[in-house]
Design a protein that fits this description.
- Pfam families: SIS_2.
- InterPro entries: RpiR-like_SIS, SIS_dom, SIS_dom_sf, SIS_GmhA/DiaA_subfam.
- The chain is of the alpha/beta class.
- It has helices at about 5-25, 25-40, 55-60, 90-95, 100-105, 125-135, 150, 195-215, 230-240, and strands spanning about 45-50, 70-75, 115-120, 140-145, 170.
- A five-stranded parallel beta sheet has the order 2-1-3-4-5, sandwiched between helices.
- Strand 4 (about 140-145), helix 7 and strand 5 form a beta-alpha-beta unit.
- Helix 1 packs parallel to helix 8 and helix 5 (about 100-105) packs across helix 6 (about 125-135).
- It starts with 5 loop residues before the first helix and ends in a 9-residue tail after the last helix.
Length: about 250
């Protein structure tokens, strides 16, 4: 029996989006997971970037129990969250030309590394410039976006393109333009965004693929364990020591 409460409708919508990922994005998920496994096996480093709320999914990959220890956050000051004041400054910085290139030039990213760029709309200067500049450095780029924005909105960057146009692999979250799943009588605006839960699930599916792919090749994936289980801290110390030259969040 269908649950018509707002909570039930939102959860049904999220489940539907997750089922779409499972059924329609299996190929890109496998490709992205394999690319990450290749980077790890070849000695490369892993980075993730997202602006605003897209940064939540990026941060979910970093220093994460059950995740790859080699995933580092590529942080742009004022852009990675809503802690900046005013909060609207973060949105404005996404539209500043040259900022992404400056950040990349100051970062440890180098040829042979891999960068996950998360941008729901993929239309602003920041994600497009970051993808193009990273690839010019020989960095592989996985883009996580909603492809619908390219069909229903106009680009908001000088190239006239979207993030999806500058990636080695594109993961389509399938989120509708506007990122609001519900409407309700008496409520003027659509509400209940699902991009965070869907994007995080999408990326965890990719990371699971990467870990299993490494194991299938006979390579132990450098995974972290929870520090709240017995032996977890000792495990993590070993992993971080072994891969210390590819981990940047502990310095």
């Amino acid at each position: 029996m269908s649950d018509r409460t707002p909570a039930g409708q939102f959860l049904d919508a999220a489940i539907g989006l997750l089922r779409r990922l499972r059924d329609e994005e299996a190929g890109p998920i496998a490709a992205a997971g394999t690319m990450i496994a290749d980077t790890v096996a070849d000695g490369g480093r892993l980075f993730a970037f997202g602006a605003g709320h897209s940064s939540l999914a990026a941060q979910d990959l970093v220093y994460r129990a059950g995740g790859l220890a080699l995933m580092n956050l590529l942080a742009v000051p004022g852009v990675v969250g809503v802690d900046v004041r005013p909060a609207t400054l973060g949105s404005a910085l996404e539209r500043v030309e040259g900022l992404a290139g400056t950040v990349l030039d100051s970062s440890p990213l180098r040829g042979g590394d891999l960068l996950v760029i998360i941008s729901l709309s993929g239309r602003n200067v920041m994600p497009v410039e970051m993808a193009t500049r990273a690839r010019a450095k020989g960095v592989k780029v996985i883009g996580v976006t909603s492809v619908a924005y390219a069909a229903e909105t106009s680009p908001r960057n000088p190239s006239g393109t979207f993030l999806k146009d500058h990636c080695d692999v594109v993961l389509d979250s399938g989120i509708a333009v506007g990122d609001a799943e519900l409407t309700w009588e008496g409520v003027s605006a659509p509400f209940a965004p699902a991009s965070t839960v869907v994007t995080s699930a999408l990326l965890q599916a990719v990371m699971a693929t990467a870990a299993a792919t490494l194991a299938d090749r006979g390579v132990e994936p450098p995974l972290l364990r929870s520090g709240n289980v017995d032996g977890g801290r000792a495990w993590n110390t070993r992993v971080m020591t072994e891969y210390g030259d590819r981990i940047f969040y502990q310095h």
